[in-house]
Amino acid sequence: MDLPNFVFGRISPRLDFWKRFRQAQFKAKNTLDDGIEIVSGLPRSLLDILACFDEPAVEERLWLWHGTTGHVLQIRLWDAWRFSGILLARRTQGSYHTTSISLPTSEELLGLLVASLDSLRLGVQQPETQHLLICHALLYPYMITASEFTLLRSHPEWKAQLNRLRDFLSELDPTDNCQIGLQIIDEAWQNGDEAVDLDVGVRLRGLELALF
Prior knowledge:
mainly alpha
């Protein structure tokens, strides 16, 4: 799908497959189905917003996203993705937009994110939910959440919950994408860095790291 800001250390140009596909659907006057896209497990309407990540008002669009019907753990996952998107937009754009609505602070968003991720960690380990394969979509929101060093130092209980998810992901996913991503966060935290720039951390390793 090649969505914006899902490949860190990017060198190759982005192809925007999803955005172009949906634009072609619209031009052909095909119905833009808002159901769940089966490869990603994310609602198509949420993917539409994420595909326009570098456009104005993405924070407001993510916050106001209407949602769709799904399993309770799927809904938690979708919330984690959109909250992560808002935090990342603020980080990459320097500050968040002034809008006509009241948006939560970054600290409030981080609390919502940690709560969603911890409930997902517990939920995906239950036998009756393992068929959902939600665990394969947890790396992106974990990486964005775990990069909020300053706020996490103010909330050590949130960091402890994230550490449990980190250990779960490390055991679950042996791929380089996951392991290198976790190492970048771990090393920056151990070094006492005030923040981690995922793009820089990955580029220094001469890599492109896809979190999706």
